[in-house]
Amino acid sequence: MADKHGGGKLAALEERMAGYNLRGQWAMDANRPQKVRKGPQNQVFVEPSSSGVGHVWQWDKMIPFLDASLETLTDSYTARRTLIMSNPALPRGTTHTLLASMQIIGPGEMAWAHRHTISAFRFTIQGGPDVYTVVDGVPLTMEPYDLILTPSWMWHDHHNKSARPAIWLDGLDVPFTLALNQNFYEELGAAAQELRPAGQASDARHGPFRYPWAETRPRLEALAAEGTVHPHDGVALDYVNPVTGGSTLPTIACRIHWLPPGFEGKAHRRTTSAVLFAVEGQGTAIIEDKDMHWDRHDTVAVPNWSWLRLSNRSRTEPAILFSMSDAPILRTFGLYREESEADRRP
């Protein structure tokens, strides 16, 4: 920082303060990011800078790596075959609070039982009646596009008794939990949990752990048939915990979007960060004026406070997106904000 306050006096003051592990706020003001406003005495933040960048992970590029991991890591009990989608502009995470990854388990395999304070879900891509996750002793079938929750500190293990590999999208609040230095982890010891007796409920505070696609898709179609289309999100249906009435997990909100044929969304931005997964169709996410084209089963990172505009590139078929965001965190602490294209400042 240039010394504007009397020769070398400021530098000498800062040097003496450093010996007591003190630092003047004026030094921080001098190194603030671009989005600042100069006041009569100092500089103040106008708005946050986006953490990370928008990015697309293409399904057809990931499948060969998933298949290769089956050949290279021959036992899913010794290592999770998971491809983490790392944002190119962040030290860790798909966004600054969320992590998305693709996991594969071979035929006849299982992934060992453990639990952690990290909250997570599984959005099934390739599954079936013989693929399931056990959560707190309850087996949950993983049919294609089923949403399976593994809440914080719940035991879970994965099983594939089918004849082909099982694949799903993992969504976790890893960066957020690690930033708070609150990560606890424990292995069960046994490879798998003992199953609860039929009909015995799990922890009712968390609501259902499985949202079947066979129920979600008809509800989404019925909502789309009503013709009410949000200018930013298309036709959007939230996954809701029926016990609390809130989000699926305390730190992660899940939503499914129906973009009608030819949908051209309006630009908006939110203080939340999000990850989009394309269930069906093809479209474009314009993030900070950069076109990010996506096709079926591609994954898109949307940084916080970034301008976003969604569109469906097909004029004849709808597109369906699954999304996760950190909205519950921000809403809890009163930090959620959004801004539409009409409010956009030059």
Summarize this entry quickly.
By secondary structure, this protein is α+β, with helices and mostly antiparallel strands.
Describe the structure.
- This protein is α+β, with helices and mostly antiparallel strands.
- The protein has three domains: 9-45, no CATH class; 55-209, Jelly Rolls (Sandwich); 214-343, Jelly Rolls (Sandwich), CATH 2.60.120.10.
- The chain is built from six helices and 24 strands.
- Strands 3-21-18-23-16-15 form a six-stranded antiparallel sheet. It has a six-stranded antiparallel sheet with strand order 4-5-12-7-10-14.
- The longest helix has 14 residues, at 59-72.
- The radius of gyration is 23 Å and the shape is globular.
- It starts with 8 loop residues before the first helix and ends in a 6-residue tail after the last strand.
Number of helices: 6
Average pLDDT reading: 90
Major sheet characteristics: 6 strands, antiparallel
The gyration radius over C-alpha positions equals: 23 Å
Q: Number of domains in the coordinates?
A: 3
Shape: globular
> How helical, in percent, are the residues?
10-25%
Assign the CATH architecture of the largest domain.
Sandwich
Number of strands: 24
Any low-confidence stretches, pLDDT <50, length ≥5?
37-42
Task: Name the CATH class of the largest domain.
Answer: Mainly Beta
